[in-house]
């Protein structure tokens, strides 16, 4: 798996940055490679992806997004 590997989410190809921006609801500075979260979506039971990203210089967030439905969350406190 390359660091820039794209994944399919809800039928559309996403890059790590585009997935992070979708979860964040806005621009992000940087994003790590997308990885499998090894958990099922609580809404539809689908596969959940995880992506680590920096919405700002001072913050690092891990975002989670279902590949099959609209469910998403972050690990923010």
What does this structure look like?
The chain has 1 helix and 7 strands; from the N terminus they run E-E-H-E-E-E-E-E. The mean pLDDT is 94. Strands 3, 4, 5, 6 and 7 form a 5-stranded antiparallel β-sheet that branches. Strands 1-2 form a two-stranded antiparallel ribbon. It has one helix spanning 16-24; strands spanning 7-9, 12-14, 30-31, 35-40, 47-56, 59-66, 72-74. Strand 6 (59-66) and strand 7 form a beta hairpin.
Counting copies of identical and different chains, the oligomeric state is: single chain
Principal-axes shape call: globular
Major beta-sheet overview: 5 strands, antiparallel
Number of helices: 1
- How confident is the prediction overall: mean pLDDT? 94
Low-confidence stretches: none
Helix-strand topology string: EEHEEEEE
Helix content: 10-25%
What is the first-to-last residue Cα distance? 30 Å
DSSP strand tally: 7
Radius of gyration: 12 Å
Binned strand content? over 45%
Helix/strand-derived category reads mainly beta
């Amino acid at each position: 798996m390359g660091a820039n590997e794209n994944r399919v989410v809800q039928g559309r190809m996403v890059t790590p940055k585009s997935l992070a921006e979708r979860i964040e609801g806005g621009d992000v500075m940087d994003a790590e490679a997308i990885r499998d979260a090894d958990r099922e979506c609580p809404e539809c039971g689908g596969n959940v992806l995880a992506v680590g990203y920096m919405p700002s210089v001072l913050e690092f967030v891990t975002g989670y997004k279902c590949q099959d439905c609209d469910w998403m969350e972050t690990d923010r406190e």
